[in-house]
UniProtKB/TrEMBL annotation:
Transmembrane segments: none annotated. One of its GO terms (molecular function) is DNA-binding transcription factor activity, RNA polymerase II-specific. It comes from Chunga burmeisteri (Black-legged seriema). It comes from the Eukaryota. The lineage of its organism: Eukaryota, Metazoa, Chordata, Craniata, Vertebrata. The keyword Transcription regulation applies. Residues 99-168, 244-330 form the E2F/DP family winged-helix DNA-binding domain. InterPro entries: E2F, E2F_WHTH_DNA-bd_dom, WH-like_DNA-bd_sf, WH_DNA-bd_sf. Its main location: nucleus. Residues 783-809 have a biased composition (Polar residues). This is Transcription factor E2F8. One of its GO terms (biological process) is positive regulation of macromolecule metabolic process.
Length: 831
DNA sequence: TGATCCCGCCAACGT
DNA sequence: ACGTTGGCGGGATCA
């Protein structure tokens, strides 16, 4: 509305640049904030183009960003200006914000860049929509698009009016798991088959039979459209949102994701997706317009998912021609096992609410009407309850209306603000690492270095003993604070912190070496290969036809990077450690601080979600350790370091991370098709059966790669428990390691599973420990945890937990028992 | 052209 | 009544 986009953009650009880049400079955001039309990117026009072109290449972007960030604000600004002004004419044209520059995907990237993948604690990470919109120079409407899909993944949750909480990827695994399950329940696989079949046979003609088939396939859920899938912990939050008929985006996004998770070659064409999504709502009437609209939405969603690097655009070539499709590049999702979920669940849920929360299973079931049940998310009563809770929470928090953003005053805001700017560096680094991490070691190196720099630079920030965030609305410097460098000593404030605490970090390190191999091994390039996918599903031939060629648009440029040779696990490993030691301190200290902050928060606030720490892995860990969990600031460094060694280390630096890594790698690199079958076979059952489990080492045996995680996990756990000193790592059985069990890609899958198992086990252990309620443990006894545990029990196989708890008493034995038992649970619990 | 998908109207909701 | 959310689809861009 303001003006013509084109003409204005220049100004906008420059302006935006200012905004984004210079945190300090911005004394105040001018209240009137004229939103400039164009979203100016911090990047140079040139870079923009490049970026745009290689839509996905996060590296570049990150690099750019990094660079810019590193640069003095002034410099950057100047540069921008120069560019802008000089470019006045033709040159500028090119740089002009083309449509692409306004793309949702790009916007989403920017958005994501502001927040850490694994925020230390939810507290800091508040998102003020207005703020974000302003800073990114976009209309709020667009932010909604992003947030909505993020919400569908539980990466954010709505807190209040203009407010969202950023969870990052902590819940991602669980969410995906849940989604997968639901998808399976809905028989999405079959639906997909049907549609494909139909397509092949002919275009959409309405064969009565076809339709019937379709109907049948849909049959179970029929008109049912599942409502928003919630995670146990997340529910309430969602509740607030739930009010409105969450129709599309949110739900649609989930469904879309489900399709990926369910389908064997994890590739979904827009067409199919659209049809299925439509189909659910109303069988048939492929209204053209409707279809079109659906596809539009799917693009929106896909863009965001792409930014999250969960999917990637590809083309499926058939007889007819090539159709746009997307390939899942996100983490592998384990075969759904309820057990897992249960465990997971505990982790997720915010303590407060947890009690009211039905078991996670129930939730999922209720949520998903897959079986033709109703589809309401939760009982109204619950909702009310939730709402009330939320309200309280909100009260506590600020209830600012949208326009608020201006003042840095607000603690929350500060917090939120902080991440965006200060945190960016790390974030960026993270991104790079995560995405196709391998790209260049160089990059990693750079990142790491940059990260270091960041820390160094940041020192200004003094870790003052912060008053509870509420109390201290330090207005000005607020931005900086969050990063606050940690005093070398453990956090002064929180007594809670354990000395070992840092151990978490070390764990991560330990793990890497072994994993490095694994990581190294995989090469992303595979994607390129046109693989005829074998359909696991019933319908055979058809599929093969359908998915003849799969071409990656981008061609995974980065892939080349991944040379197995490059990564030298052995060499690097030591390096890492060494570096770690020095850095570690910092990190730790930081972490500690963060903890403190968090704790304070909690105390201040209601302690709501904060208290729980979530690890990607799903480990339930005492706050102390939680510290590590946040990759946010410093962790990145670690990552960077690690990454250099191994290609991708995504998740948290901690032990929990490790397993994830393996899986993720797998997911990314290996063509899904191949992997899938194996996984299935291996899945929980087999595991359970295996006696191996009792032994931590044994687990690894199955998978070559797997071992590491297991051992690491074990050590991690033990350490936490206090059974073993922090530095010590439980040795993985070397012999087993070497076991050449599977040399092929399958390994990966195995590893994944193992990983999962291990995770579970570890979780169990942790839980057990918790259960014994060893107050002795330094960790804080936080309510949340407690709640969690309870929660845990309830939902989960009732037996399982109890059994565990019973056994849990002798530390050592317990651990063993835990290992063992849990497995069983898995089996049993699984329906 | 078809594939993408930006833009923003305007209705559903919340307060 | 007004602000927040966000469905929806025209039509501009891109390839």
């Amino acid at each position: 509305r303001n003006v013509l986009k084109t003409p204005l953009k220049q100004a906008a650009t420059s302006h935006s640049v200012l905004t984004e880049i210079q945190p300090d400079c911005q004394p105040l955001t001018p209240p009137p904030k004229p939103k400039e039309i164009l979203p100016a990117d911090p990047w140079t026009p040139t870079s923009n183009l490049k970026m745009l072109i290689s839509a996905a290449s996060p590296e570049i972007r990150s690099r750019e960003q990094r660079r810019e960030l590193s640069n003095t604000t002034s410099e950057v600004l100047q540069a921008k200006y120069c560019l802008q002004e000089h470019l006045s004419g033709d040159e500028y044209e090119k740089s002009q914000p083309s449509r692409k520059e306004k793309s949702l995907g790009l916007l989403c990237h920017k958005f994501l860049a502001r927040y850490p993948d694994y925020p230390s604690t939810a507290e800091n990470n508040y998102i003020c929509l207005d703020e974000v919109a302003e800073e990114l120079n976009v209309e709020r409407r667009r932010i909604y698009d992003i947030v909505n899909v993020l919400e569908s993944l539980h990466m954010v949750s709505r807190l209040a009016k203009n407010r969202y909480a950023w969870h990052g990827r902590h819940n991602l695994a669980k969410t995906l798991q849940a989604l997968k399950k639901v998808g399976e329940e809905n028989k999405y696989t079959q639906q997909i088959q049907m549609i494909k079949k139909r397509e092949y046979e002919h275009e959409f003609d309405f064969d009565g039979e076809r339709n019937e088939e379709m109907a049948r396939s849909f049959g179970s859920n029929e008109h049912s459209e599942m409502s928003f899938v919630e995670l146990p912990g997340m529910e309430f939050r969602a509740a607030s949102v739930n009010s409105r008929k969450d129709k599309s985006l949110r739900v649609m996004s989930q469904k879309f994701v489900m399709l990926f998770l369910v389908s064997t070659p994890q590739i979904v064409s827009l067409e199919v997706a659209a049809k299925i999504l439509i189909g659910e709502d109303q069988l048939e009437d492929l209204d053209k317009s409707k279809f079109k609209t659906k596809i539009r939405r799917l693009y929106d969603i896909a863009n965001v998912l792409s930014s999250l690097q969960l999917i990637k655009k590809v083309h499926v070539t058939e007889e007819r021609g090539r159709k746009p499709a997307f390939k899942w590049t996100g983490p592998e999702v384990l075969p759904n096992i309820q057990d897992t979920k249960l465990e997971t669940t505990s982790t997720i849920c915010p303590p407060t609410i947890s009690e009211s929360i039905p078991s996670k299973e129930q939730c999922s079931k209720n949520l998903f009407p897959s079986q033709g049940k109703q589809n309401f998310t939760r009982h109204p009563s619950l909702i009310k309850l939730v709402k009330s809770i939320e309200n309280d929470r909100r009260k506590i928090q600020s209830a600012p209306t949208s326009p608020v953003k201006i003042s840095a005053t607000d603690t929350d805001q500060n917090l939120s603000a902080f991440p965006s700017k200060m945190a960016q560096l790390p974030v960026i680094a993270k991104h790079q690492l995560e995405g196709q991490s391998k790209k260049a070691k160089e990059m990693k190196m750079e990142l790491s270095s940059s990260a270091l720099e960041c820390h160094l630079s940041s020192p200004e920030v003094v870790p003052k003993p912060e008053p509870p965030r509420t109390a201290a609305p330090s207005q000005q410097p607020a931005l900086t604070q969050p990063l606050g460098v940690c005093p070398p000593s453990h956090s002064p404030v929180s007594p809670v912190i354990l000395p070992h605490t840092h151990s978490g970090v070390s764990y991560a390190i330990y793990l890497h070496p072994s994993q490095a191999h694994t990581v190294t091994t995989y090469s992303p390039s595979f994607m390129l290969q046109p693989l005829p996918c074998a359909d696991v599903t019933g319908i055979k031939s058809i599929n093969s036809n359908i998915l003849n060629k799969i071409t990656t648009e981008e061609g995974d440029n980065q892939i080349a990077t991944a040379d197995p040779t490059e990564s030298l696990p052995a060499n690097e490993r030591p390096t890492v450690k060494s570096e770690t030691s020095s850095q570690r301190c910092l990190k730790r200290s930081q972490a500690l601080q963060e903890n403190n902050l968090i704790k304070r928060y909690r105390s201040d606030e209601e302690s709501v979600d904060t208290s729980l720490t979530f690890f990607p892995s799903g480990y339930l860990i005492p706050l102390t350790q939680c510290t590590h969990g946040n990759k946010a600031g410093f962790s990145n460094k670690e990552k960077a370091g690690i990454c250099s060694l191994q290609h991708a280390t995504y998740s948290s630096p901690i032990a929990g991370v490790i397993p994830v890594t393996a899986s993720e790698l797998k997911a990314v690199n290996i063509p899904a098709f191949q992997i899938t079958p194996l996984n299935i076979m291996l899945s929980p059952t087999s595991v359970a059966a295996a006696p191996v489990l009792s032994n931590s080492c044994l687990n690894s045996s199955n998978t070559s790669s797997a071992q590491n995680p297991s051992s690491s996990v074990l050590s991690f756990t033990l350490q936490h428990v206090g059974l073993i000193p922090a530095g010590v790592q439980v040795p993985a059985n070397p012999v087993l390691r070497h076991m050449p069990v599977s040399s092929q890609p399958e390994n990966v899958s195995h590893s994944t599973e193992n990983k999962n198992l291990q995770e579970k086990v570890s979780k169990n252990i942790l839980q057990l420990l918790d259960h014994d309620g060893s107050p002795s443990v330094p960790r804080e006894p936080q309510e949340p945890q407690t709640v969690t545990e309870n929660f845990f029990r309830t939902p989960g196989g009732p037996n399982t937990v109890s059994s565990l708890s019973a056994s849990s008493h002798g530390t050592d034995r317990i651990s063993e028992g835990a290992l063992y038992i849990p497995q069983r649970k898995l089996e049993v619990s699984e329906d």
